[in-house]
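Please produce the structure of this protein holding adenosine-5'-triphosphate.
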Amino acid sequence: MAVAGPSQKWRKVGGRFGSSPAPNKNGVVQELLTRLSVQAEVTRGAEARLMEPRPRGALCAVAMGPLQLPVQPPPPPLPLLLLLLMAPGAEPFEPITVGIAIGAASALTGYLSYPDFYCRFVECCHEEQPVNASALKLDLEEKLFGQHLATEVILKALTGFRNNRNPKKPLTLSLHGWAGTGKNYVSQIVAENLHLKGLKSNFVHLFVSTLHFPHEQEIKLYQEQLQKWIRGNVSACARSVFIFDEMDKLHRGLIDAIKPFLDYYEQVDGISYRKAIFIFLSNAGGDLITRMALDFWRAGKKREDIQLKDLEPVLSLGVFNNKNSGLWHSGLIDKSLIDYFVPFLPLEYKHVKMCVRAEMKSRGFTIDEEVVTRVADEMTFFPKEEKIYSDKGCKTVQTRLDFH
Ligand SMILES: Nc1ncnc2c1ncn2[C@@H]1O[C@H](COP(=O)(O)OP(=O)(O)OP(=O)(O)O)[C@@H](O)[C@H]1O
Ligand SMILES: [Mg+2]
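Below is the modeled complex.
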């Protein structure tokens, strides 16, 4: 397979690799102007405004490519005022009518140039907006099963980080666990709580090791491209979210290219990375987590009694010393740049059943407990003797449900 060069593969295309072409800045403005029916009159003004620096507090950005500039709200439709004044029956210089017309026009133009209005048409970065902690809590508690540690850590980490106006470094979370335990699912929930469009947002970037960094001999190229990509997109939206999936399949050393962005620097080459979020997903450490869960189970202790402090140090050390973790001897761990190691516990029979019910509900079916049990019984469980944990987590539940 040919390796795509930087210009092909790494150009931000409408927020996704390889999707439909991104609108350019003028295209976006054009679309807005068309909607406002004042295209001809304001085009010149809009183009002029694109050249101006972005104002603080009204940060509206369109992700169009690594080094794109954010776009300002369009200029107010001043010709509307003239239209009002020229309307049939209008008394040209009658003071009250003119006064009302001016009042109405300025109210209208004020409204139209307000960022909220603009952001209805174009996705905005909303740099200063804190995360809605109760909505995130509800989402995690209702949707994510059997992961009391992940729920607690992610909720605390995100709300703390987002509500801090001056974080000293970007937030870095490393999610670890057995297959099908909800790592990608949580990333989706997090993305949706940070940017309305979730994983489809132009400000959320998902990298999959085997897809985006397949060839070991190209590490240097990937590192350069990755740096450019992150630099460009953080300059467009400081609150960008970068998710690295399949970290355990990432070539050794590749991830260290992003180390400067994760450190405690105020700026790197004029750009601050402190409001960005980096999430790493990995199966590495899944065995350590399972061993701990099993020890608790065998000792007759509750799964919910496992605490983060029991697992976090074991995980960080285990991942650091694991050649196939993507973080082997990584400067990110060495320099304590990963804020939280988040363990995902292996899922039990009752959690699989919860996943089946959730899936039935999302499809609009009434919940049939017989079907729930049949689907859960089809899954395989380990260890051989006790058969406690689902070896695929909830991963094949959706497809299995199709057969019932
Ligand atoms: N803990 C969970 N709570 C609720 N649903 C879950 C959970 N874990 C998995 N699921 C369901 O199973 C699907 C697959 O899980 P997901 O892709 O998040 O697993 P993963 O941990 O990323 O696995 P892998 O390590 O194999 O990539 C999710 O989309 C979700 O529907
Ligand atoms: Mg996954």
